[in-house]
Amino acid sequence: MNIKFDEKGLVPAIVQDADSREVLTLAYMNEESLAKTLETRETWFYSRSRQELWHKGATSGNTQTVVEMKYDCDQDALLVLVHPNGPACHTGTVSCFTETVIGGAVDPLKDDEASAILGKLESLIADREKQRPEGAYTTYLFEKGVDKILKKVGEEASEVIIAAKNRDREELKWESADLLYHLMVLLVEQKLPFKDVLNVLEERHNR
């Protein structure tokens, strides 16, 4: 890998969630932090303000497991696909990119579209369980087994509680989505169709 570092010995590294494809942060690596990232399969960066190496999540626990790394056609920028073990931003948000300059919120989903999303998600997860595409976060969960999936469900449930306690609607939105996703993975692993869960809700509603 012939990376072109700038005059300060740095190269920008765009960090992206390997599963959701959300851009998490932009940081910088020097030759040493890049080597440590490749060696440990966790992200290491170079802090321009402190002028020292830093291991992402060393103190917060919000490490990033590297799934894949690419560089651009000019060999002067890196794209790092990761499995984040918590928020990427020091402010506690999932991504450092939270301020909108152009554009805005996506149009609200219609009721039928909203309900269809869960069905599509279940089908996608079931397909990932069968196909096990390399580098996919869902594949990683199924290969690690039920204990890992249960741990993630518990972690995401805790994050939902924290976000709600902090009255952080934006964070609650993201964490709730993470919880639903991991719960769906668990249901697929347990061979329990999501419609069976909905049937229980329907039965309760009709009592």
Structural features, described:
There is one protein chain. The chain is an alpha+beta fold. The chain folds into two domains: 11-84, Ubiquitin-like (UB roll) (Roll); 111-205, Orthogonal Bundle (Helix Hairpins), CATH 1.10.287. Helix content is 44%, strand content 18%. The protein is built from six helices and six strands. The chain has helices spanning 31-40, 111-131, 137-144, 146-165, 169-189, 194-205; strands spanning 11-17, 23-29, 44-47, 52-55, 64-71, 78-84. The longest helix has 21 residues, at 111-131. The N and C termini lie far apart (64 Å).
List keywords for this structure.
alpha+beta; 4-stranded mixed β-sheet; Ubiquitin-like (UB roll); 6 strands; 207 residues; 2 domains; elongated; Helix Hairpins
Number of strands: 6
CATH superfamily of the largest domain: MazG-like
Number of domains: 2
Q: In CATH terms, what is the architecture of the largest domain? A: Orthogonal Bundle
